[in-house]
Amino acid sequence: MLPLMRLPSLGYRQLMLSLLLFxxxxxxxxxxxxxxxxxxxxxxxxxxxxxxxxxxxxxxxMATLYWYGKDSVKxxxxxxxxxxxxxxxxxxxxxxxxxxxxxxDGEAVLADYRSAYMWLNLASYNLVQxxxxxxxxxxxxxxxxxxxxxxxxxxxxxKAQDMSSRCLESN
Length: 171
Hints:
Layout: H1 12-41, H2 44-52, H3 58-68, H4 77-89, H5 93-105, H6 113-129, H7 135-151, H8 154-170
Helix pairs in contact: 1-2, 1-3, 2-3, 3-4, 4-5, 5-6, 5-7, 6-7, 6-8
């Protein structure tokens, strides 16, 4: 039998605020659980519905499903790139990071160093804003930027930085 703990006395407002915050956390957790369950099952229709309603992580899950293929979901890098783009536009730093590599390598899209540089800038910014430590990603972003520095003109880098700024300003 667990020992009983004495809870601090809460006023009505504090109690209601605590319940509201707790229920919000449960809802958010439930949404994340739905994304995880749908991804594990390869349930594209459920994931698509969640992604179209901007459920956190759903667009990234769709991208991953199509990029790599899973169980009954056939590998389709072109669709994967489209979903990475949707997730990246939603501010997902990992999708932005992944999309940069897609643009650098020209996988399923035309190689586009400006776009790659822009997504690296945005991934770096959003990684700093997140609670994720992302040490590997942070290091890899620096390495990719160094590579692009040698592949791009100063004008291209400047334009890519302007594109990044406009994206951040437009949210």
